[in-house]
Amino acid sequence: MKAYFSFSLAFLYFLLNPLLISASAGDWIPEQIQCKYHCEKNYCLKTESPLDEGVDILIDPPFIPSKQSVTPNLIDIFLLWDCQSLCDYQCQQLTTKMLQEKIANTDLETQREQELEIEQFHGKWPFVRIAYIQEFWSTVFSLGNFIPHFTALSKLNKNQNIYLKPNSNNNNNNDNNNTNLLINNYKLVALMGCCAWISSFIFHFRDLIVTEKLDYFFAGATVLSGFYAISVRVFVGGDKNKQTKYGKLGFLLCALIFMAHILRLYFDWSYTYNMRFNIFFGVLQYIMLITVGISNYFKYKGNKYLNVFKLSFTPIFLVFFTGLSMSFELFDIFIPSLQIDSHALWHCMTIWPSFKLYDFFIEDHKALMSSQKEDNLSNTSDDLKRK
Predict the structure, then answer these.
(1) CA separation for the pair 289, 279 (Å, rounded)
(2) Nearest partner of 58 among 94, 31, 83, judged by Cα
(3) TM segments (predicted)?
(4) Which of 245, 295, 313, 329 has the fewest C-beta atoms under 10 angstroms from its C-beta?
């Protein structure tokens, strides 16, 4: 949920596009280069290092990790850590420790003049592995975000079963089956959300090309499924005829768009394209979510049996709340003592809104079903009067 376009652009830029720049400032620190070179040469059984060309090599580097620290154990091997990747990681830690010592022994004015600060490596902060996890808090909060989507599946099933109980009137059963296509759409969103946050969990646990791509693919699937579900809610609602005519067509269209999206990335991986794709459908999705809230207000404001505030202001509030929480992404901060960064904080802030979003979907669906039943009774009454 995005409050303003600027927030959405910034969020998707940083979240879905973290590696647009091929290298970070930390990758070019001389001590980091020397450390990696000598570590790979001495411990990784390589005849030559990828750093051989164009590097002024010192005979004695300022620091180098121990052989034991870059020798992968069984868990490292299982998580696809090898000597080279461990050299890179350990050298990042040693380089960061060097920077921290310089900062601690330098006054603020000199720090500004020399631009002394902790640097990123490969587009990420130098996190310390905790229990073999590369980004501990992002991993934990990704798992936390999985929970509301997972629990939503059972909530949506329970709500759907209420309306699918046998009824003596077959026409009513058909109406229920069609209007419950909305719930099926929300279940699809929840399922894609589960896949997306599990992928995020794996990616933050171990950053590899394959885990990165899975994270990006399912992020796109989540955005597109949300766009489809809310589009159906806005333009089709609970109208069974429109559901039959346009619901499946819309699903097929979105499925084809997603397949084309995956093929585009498979044959020509582009962070810029991926960013634009998610921005486009993400912004549309949340514009329509606000539209649902506004529409509900005018539709139900005179109904004393419904919670109009919950049905109308909840989606708008969630958009603004999530937009404000995205400010963490604008200020790319890192707190070494806590091993947490702004991206992890943003993940933390999205857990509660996800619970509330599915609660809104369910309440909105109940109100829509109730409203449709009233309309059907009214139409039946009018027909009887005409007869």
Answers:
(1) 15
(2) 31
(3) 186-205, 217-236, 248-267, 279-298, 313-335
(4) 245
> Do residues 309 and 364 touch, judged by C-beta distance below 8 A?
no
As a whole number of angstroms, the distance between CA 196 and CA 350 comes to 13
Buried b (16+ CB within 10 A) or exposed e, 266-275: eeeeebeebb
CA distances for 291 relative to 4, 107, 161, 169, 283, angstroms: 14, 53, 28, 34, 12
- Give the 3-state secondary structure of residue 55: coil
Identify the helix (H) or strand (E) that includes residue 334: strand 334-335
pTM of the entire predicted model = 0.84
Instruction: Say if residue 324's pLDDT is above 90.
Output: no
- Residues 6 or more apart in contact with residue 213 via CB below 8 angstroms: 265, 269
pLDDT in tens, 177-212: 555 788 999 999 999 999 999 999 999 999 999 999
CA distance 35 to 31: 6
Beta-carbon contacts of 134 under 8 Å, excluding residues fewer than 6 positions away, are: 127, 204, 205, 206, 207
Token output for 24: 């970070």
Q: Are 138 and 199 in contact (CB under 8 A)?
A: no
Mean pLDDT of 19-47: 80
- Which helix (H) or strand (E) segment holds residue 340: the answer is strand 340-341
Is 223 in contact with 11 (CB distance < 8 Å)?
A: no
Please report which helix (H) or strand (E) contains residue 304, including its range: none
**How far is CA 80 from each of CA 207, 209, 211, rounded to the nearest angstrom?**
10, 12, 12
Q: Token match 């601690």: residue?
A: 104
Q: What is the pLDDT of residues 69-113, one digit of tens each?
A: 999 999 999 999 999 999 999 999 999 999 999 888 887 877 777
- Are the C-beta atoms of residues 335 and 128 closer than 8 Å to each other? no
Predicted confidence band at 155 (pLDDT cuts at 50, 70, 90)? Answer: very high
Distance CA 101, CA 103 (A): 5
Instruction: Decide: residue 242, CB within 10 A, 0-12 exposed, 13-18 middle, 19+ buried.
Output: middle
In the Cβ-directed half-sphere of 118, how many Cα atoms lie within 13 Å? 20
Which domains does the chain show, CATH number per domain? 23-114 (no CATH), 136-386 (1.20.1070)
Closest C-alpha among 361, 33, 27, 369 to residue 189: 361
**Amino acid, single-letter form, for residue 197:** W
